[in-house]
Amino acid sequence: MEAVKELSEDLKEAVGGSSTSARLFSVRAVLAETEERYEREVEKRRELERDIREKEDMMEKERRELDLKIFKLNGSAAVVEGQTRELLEERESLNTRLEDRESRIKELESQLRGVENSLSTATRDQNNRIEGSERRRQLLQNQLAAAQERAANAEQLMKQMEDSRKQEIEVLESHLKAEKERRLGLERRSSGEVEGRRISSGGDERVFELTRRNAELVDSNRRLEKEIDLVRDQIRAMEKHLTSGRESTAEVADLRAKIDAMEKIQSVEDNTKEHLDALRREKEAISSIVEELSPTGDREEGIRILQSISAHKDSTFKRPVHANKGGEVDSILLKSSKLKSEVDSLKAKTTALESALVRVGRRVKVLERERAALRSIVDAYEEDMLSNEPAERRSERIKALEGSLKETEATVKTLAEDVARGEDRVRELTVELAEAQARRFSENQESSVIEMLRSKVLEAVKERDQLSEKLTKLSNVQSLEKETDGLKRKVAKLESELLAREKVEKESEGSKILHLKDNPSILSKPEEPTSERKRPRLEQDNTDGSSDAGAQLKKRIADLEAEATRLSKEEVAKAVTEAEKRALRTREVARMKIEEFRLACYNLFGYKMQVSGAKYTLSSMYADREEDVLCFGRNESGGMELLETPYCARLQEELDQFLRKWNSIPALLAHITSDNFQKTTVFTQL
Amino acid sequence: MGSDANTVITLKGSVEIVREFFGFAVNSILFQRGIYPPETFTRVNKYGLTMLVSTDSGLLKYIDNVMNQLSSWLATGMVKKLVLVMMSMDSGKSLERWGFDVQTDSNFLDGEGKRLEGEALSDKEIMAEIQAIIRQITASVTFLPLLNDPCVFDLLVYAKDDVEIPIEWEESDAKYITNQHEVRLRSFTTKIHKVDAMVSYAAN
After folding, report:
1. Of A24, A166, A247, B51, whose CB neighbour count within 10 A is largest?
2. Chain B interface includes A531 (CB < 8 A)
3. What average pLDDT does range A118-133 have in this prediction?
4. ipTM for this model
5. Does A497 touch chain B (CB under 8 A)?
6. Which residues form a coiled coil (chain A) (predicted)?
């Protein structure tokens, strides 16, 4: 608008000038200026447009960036939302875990109490037993030492007795020798009766005395031997005692091992206690968090608030959250059920162990009683030893002791076996307890989450495998479906065909389908006759005695004649010539075909066939003579039967076998062919 | 035509109408389907249409023979159906079947020279119906498959069981088409004879 004003002003100035040429010049100048201005304005406008476009582009870019930022923020918001969901889920899982843990803690506490009680009783019993066995061992060692001393004393006594006995025997032997020498001297000097009688009487007394003393010595010797035997038995018994003492030491070692095992169990218990303490601490921490949630600091109120929050969140996140939570809760429930079953099995085992321990305690009591009895016996033996009891009684007691010792040995063995079994059980239980604790401990840790995730991943992989299997199955199913579709289509096709046939059959029901024999459409093309037309023509031209064909021909001629009566002479002549030509041609063709057919049959089946009426004469290719022919005729049922020929007389066996027995003409013909062929080949070979 | 008045018809007249229709229909089909060369056909005005009729003496004689026999059977109510079958010359397989179902009013078969008055259709009406069928036959060339192989034809007459078979005639098989498609054509009636036309052809 401003430019237009300027232009009008310039024009006014120019018009206001002196001459027209000058005015025109000035007008042109003004126009040129205005054009320049206009161009400048246009350029400015373009620049402005460019600026606007640039600004628009910038704005577009900024808008895109902002969209991107919004998109990113939305993504981050979604992530945060997901995280919050996860946190809520975690919180819920923690709540459930907390509850589970509390219940587990209670169970474990009760179990621990029971185990502690049982362990304390068991350790007390074991300590008592060990003390008792150690006391017994010391007593037995003392007894052994005393018995050894006694045995040494007895051996010394025996030696002394043996020495004194030997000395006495030697003395007595020397006395006997001296007496014998005296007797011999007195016998030699038996010259005087008085002196001799006196000496003999004195010698007899001495001999008597010596024999008596000798008998006494023998008795004493026997007694001493018995005593020695008794003492030896006592030594043996003492030695046995000693061995039993050693066995008791082994028992003590076993008991110590048991104590060690029990100590291990106690250490495991300590660990569990520590875990329990940790769990309690966790529980306290969580409960404090829960208490903090409530304004009054009440725990139950805090739990209620937490539940309400979780319910609210559940309602907001609905199904997916529920699904995830449900999955985790299910897995935790499964684990808790597994743990419960493990704890139950452990409880059962501990009860079994306790019962075994009770049994062992009873046996130990029995053993202690036996030991006490043995001790009393040993004491009595010592007293006997001290009071110089007779050797026979001692030996009896020792025997009784030996019997009781054997019994105790047997009981000790059975006890040791029971203890070993119990120890094995205890070991198993400790191992299981340790495993269970390890599981619990691992569950408590955060690594369990990773394990859970791993298991989930594994499950997902399994699911994927299953899905891939299903997919392969589905692909198989799809291929099968395709096949079935194809088959269905085929079935439908066949059904439609069947329906069409049924329809045609229905149409033709109760009616005859007729057609005129002489169809010019078919007869006018003899070079390419249809298969259906070939057959009757062959039959027609089979004139080698075929009366039917002849009759047909006659009929045809009669028909033609009848037709000719209706037609004019020229037409008749024409028709006759045509018919004759046609007949001749068909005859020629038929003959050729028949010859070809016969030759083919002869070469293929080995038989030349001649038909005369209903009689079929066959002559084999390998027949010896021309007269060897077989004649067949039709029977009443329409089948073929052999007619009598001279050749048949030579084929009685074959006829019996193939016709009467098997009723097969082809088999007979084949047999005859092969038989004749073999004969001819034999002939040619020869 | 067998009717001298517009609304009167006799059995003989009806037979004549039907016979004439069959003759023209067969000629037309043979021309349309190229069974015989077109140069062997000549034009004839019939039914208000230009019809093509064969000049082949053999064919004409054959059709005449068939129609003569058919007339006698139509007069006695023996005919149930006339079928024109096209077969492959090489395989003998049926490719097309033109069927004309014939229903005869049995009331007119007893009394000779019995007339149907009043209810009968006029010549024009019958002609119009026949014209429609002939038009359909001509038009059916558009949907029928091409006959590539050289073909032969046969005329089959479905007659009642108690029919006497002349010497020139013989029994035939139905020559039905496996996996066929069927198209119903129009029909015409003389009130004594009713002719329903249809064509079935081998589906590829």
Report:
1. B51
2. yes
3. 81
4. 0.88
5. yes
6. 31-282, 364-497
